[in-house]
Specification:
226 residues; alpha/beta; Rossmann fold; Arc Repressor Mutant, subunit A; 41% helix
Length: 226
């Protein structure tokens, strides 16, 4: 049976476009145009995941998320049209699993939905061992290997690598990496991310992956062509 995704957004064009891409990947999609309808649809259909817009008339996305988290741990991907980090920080603190800023590529939305659902399968058991091509990372042991060769990584280099291997092929902004690895209360600049990426790249020279620079955006981890 197809996994069901609940799309909550008051903009019909965004809902319809995202639904088109998700349905192409085999998901069943439910629609809701506002917060009240979202909670009603959720109760009726019990979706595997919710894609939830922040800015909606009446009950906004934060209020919907608060209500959902009273009794449910269903994964929620938040969408925000504002560039300020406060929306993202509040959403994560309320229990959102991820966030995306509008406008975005629907293909990235599908990739994030897949990643989140894959991660929560099996009752939200943490996935400690992750492999991408010939690179393997064990989060519990804090070990990383290329083939059978152990990588000598510093603490933040390892944490940065984890962020990449958990999101293969997905564009990660410098702010996202800064928040994920250093924390949102970190007083440094995004240049810190660039420096650590340079160091990490030098240690992945034998891996069949590479960290691509996305000009004006950030980075993403991709497998290198055979």
């Amino acid at each position: 049976m197809a996994q069901k995704i609940l799309l909550v957004d008051d903009e019909s064009n965004i809902r319809d476009l995202n639904a088109l891409y998700l349905e192409k990947e085999g998901y069943a999609v439910e629609h809701a145009t506002n917060g009240t309808e979202a909670l009603a649809r959720f109760a009726q259909s019990e979706p595997a995941m919710v894609v939830l817009d922040v800015m909606m008339p009446g009950m906004d996305g934060f209020e919907v998320l608060r209500e959902l988290r009273r009794e449910h741990d269903t994964p929620v991907l938040m969408l925000t049209a504002r560039s300020e980090d406060i929306d993202k920080i509040v959403g994560l603190e309320l229990g959102a699993d991820d966030y995306m800023s509008k406008p975005f590529n629907p293909r990235e939305l599908v990739a994030r939905v897949k990643r989140i659902l894959h991660r929560v399968e099996g009752g939200r058991k943490p996935q400690n061992a992750i492999s991408v091509a010939n690179l393997s990372v064990d989060k519990a042991r804090r070990e990383a290997k290329v083939d059978d060769n152990m990588l000598q990584l510093r603490t933040k280099e390892f944490d940065l690598l984890v962020a990449f291997v958990e999101n293969p092929g997905i564009a990660l902004t410098r702010d996202q990496l800064l928040g994920s690895v250093w924390g949102y209360d970190f007083a440094g600049e995004t240049r810190t991310v660039d420096v650590h990426v340079q160091h990490l790249r030098s240690k992945l020279n034998r891996a069949k992956v590479q960290i691509e620079t996305l000009r004006g955006v950030g980075y993403k981890l991709v497998e290198t062509p055979a």
